[in-house]
Design brief:
- By secondary structure, the protein is of the alpha+beta class.
- The protein has 3 domains: 174 residues, no CATH class; 74 residues, Single alpha-helices involved in coiled-coils or other helix-helix interfaces; 122 residues, 2-Layer Sandwich (Heat Shock Protein 90), CATH 3.30.565.
- Helix content is 62%, strand content 9%.
- The longest helix is centred in the middle third of the chain and has 52 residues.
Length: 394
């Protein structure tokens, strides 16, 4: 059973609606659907029979398989229209299947043909179009006759036939399984991960160019001048060396800050408890950190948790006008949970320009969750949830 089998229909009911003696709005929509079964079923039947027969007949030639692949793309389109018709007239909410993914065999025309030929969604749409014609003829005839001579019992007949149509749509035109739905979601999130990684690389490049790199260039020039003055003006050379020493300290601090922004050493060496305490110490308001972890999660999950808390506490410092904040981290089954609270002014939103939407996207890309509760006047509570993924050792 899939989620769509028990999803509520347009009236909020779950499962097939019961038959009842009433010509209400739903019944008239079901009648319209059953009357449209014949033209829709006839078009789909002719299409799939033509596609399969021509594709199979020409399969031994160069054009046979490409034609069949193109025909399967069209079958997917017919399935999409049938789902839309069922959604509009029968109230059936069926998720759209994920598009055919990139072929494991590479790119190019042959890979495209092979990917379409092995598409289970398209083949189920072909099967749906093939078996629908006899049923379409029956439902059209019964509904048409019922409108004339079977008026008293027509609502019962219509509801029974419409429920059969609902089952057929769910069985043949819904996504294959939960895995396919997850693949579709992960494909949409993959772009977020790529964009985030590119933005991080640009930030690191900018910080190196504008910070430590520029300071080191200045340092090299200063030491060169000091070397030239060493013989003729030792005191000036000493002052320049002293200034250069100060520049070295600043450059080292900038490099440490940059390294902390990539992956802090304290996180690698001592884990989330120590790393989050270090982040909290840099916040402009007092922060209480509580962690309850019996072991460490995977390094990637630790990194995401660290930077999530770091960015949230930066928001507290910059925007919250809070007097105190707290960070709680604990494990619940196979999930890592994080909760950051502050007593500030509240009113934070995912689209408020404070990076909340970016955090939600980053967590979603690794199958995580992000929840924001920030009423006007506060307090603000952010709850993040990540997969645990046990830590591996070499």
């Amino acid at each position: 059973m899939t989620a769509s089998d028990t999803a509520p229909d347009e009236t909020g009911e779950t499962g097939p609606p019961p038959a009842r003696f009433a010509f209400d709005r739903r019944t008239w929509k079901e009648i319209a659907h059953l009357l449209l079964n014949l033209p829709a079923g006839l078009i789909a039947f002719v299409y799939v029979v033509t596609v399969v027969s021509v594709g199979a007949g020409l399969g031994v030639t160069v054009v046979g398989l490409p034609l069949l692949a193109a025909g399967l793309v069209g079958a997917r389109g017919i399935g999409r229209m049938e789902r839309a018709r069922a959604r509009a007239l029968l109230g059936v909410r069926v998720d759209e299947p994920s598009p055919p993914g990139a072929s494991d065999g590479g790119s190019g025309a042959l890979a495209w043909v092979w990917q379409r030929l092995k598409d289970p969604v398209a083949w189920r749409a072909v099967l749906h179009g093939f078996v629908r014609l006899p049923w379409a003829v029956l439902t059209f005839a019964v509904t048409l006759v019922g409108l004339v001579v079977l008026w008293p019992v027509l609502p019962f007949l219509v509801r029974a036939m419409a429920n059969a149509d609902r089952a057929m749509v769910r069985g043949l035109l819904s996504p294959s399984d939960e895995l396919e739905r997850r693949i579709a979601a992960l494909e949409s999130r993959r772009g977020v991960v790529v964009d985030t990684a590119a933005a991080d690389l640009r930030r690191i490049e900018r910080d190196l160019h504008d910070g430590a790199q520029a300071r080191l260039v200045t340092l090299a020039m200063g030491l060169g001048l000091a070397k030239e003055k060493l013989a003729e003006d030792p005191e000036a050379a000493a002052r320049m060396v002293d200034e250069a020493h100060g520049e070295v300290k600043i450059a080292l601090q900038e490099l440490r800050d940059l390294a902390r922004g990539i992956h802090p050493a304290v996180l690698t060496d001592r884990g989330l408890d120590a790393a989050l305490s270090a982040v909290a110490s840099r916040c402009t308001v007092p922060v209480t950190v509580t962690t309850d972890l019996d072991e460490r999660p995977a390094p990637a999950i630790e990194g995401i948790a660290y930077f999530t808390v770091s960015e949230l506490l930066q928001n507290v410092s910059k925007h919250a006008r809070a007097t105190r904040a707290s960070v709680d981290v604990w494990r619940a089954g196979d999930r890592l949970l994080i909760q950051v609270m502050d007593d500030g002014k509240g009113g934070a939103r995912l689209d408020g320009g404070t990076g909340m939407a970016g955090l939600a996207e980053r967590l979603g890309a690794v199958d995580g969750l992000f929840a924001l509760d920030s009423p006007a006047g506060g307090p603000t509570t952010v709850t993040a949830e990540l997969p645990w993924r046990a830590r591996t050792t070499a």
